Predict the structure.
Amino acid sequence: MNHHFDFIAPFYDRAIPFSRLKKMLEVLALPAAGRLLDAGGGTGRVATVLRPYLSEVLVADVSGGMLAQAHAKGLPALHAETERLPFADNSFERVLMVDALHHVIHQAETLRELFRVLQPGGRLVVEEPDVRTFPVKLIALAEKLALMRSHFLTPPQIAALLPAEARIKIETQDYNAWVIVEKL
C-alpha cells in the first residue's frame, strides 16, 4: 500500500490541503509546552502548521515518499510503523493521527501504541473521516476500488479500541470526527 502514498507524495499537500487549524488547536489543547508525535503524519502538512504551538513536533510514517516531503519542510521525520513505535512509554505530551487510522492494518495495536507513548496528563487526538456520512462512504468505496485496503471505523468503534483507563470524548463536524483522549 505504501506505493500509493509514495506516488501521491509530491502533490499530496496541494490535493488535500490542511484547513482546520482552529479546530485542531482546540482538540489538541494548544499551545502547549512539550513534544507532539504526528503518527502517520505523511508529508507533515499538519505538523508544519502545528510546529509554532509546541516545543517539538515529530512525524512518523511508513511511506518514504511522504517522509521525504516532511524532511524537505525541515521536520524531524522517521520511518516507523504505528503498530510498533520506537519510543519509550510516556514520551509525548501530545499525539496526533490525522486521516490515517483507516490505512493502518492493525488498528487496535496502533491505538494502544499511541496511548502508550502519550504522557499522563497528555492528549491524543485521532481525526478520521466520519464513515457514518454518505460522502465518506463514497470515499471508502473509492479507496477499496483503488485497492488501498482501507478500513474505516466509526468514532465509537475507535473509542472502543482504546484502553479502559482512557478518558474519551468524541466530536464531529461536517464529515470529520475527532476522538479526543486524555491519559490520566
Summary: Residues 1-8+20-105+137-157 form a domain with the Rossmann fold fold (CATH 3.40.50.150). The chain has a mean pLDDT of 90.
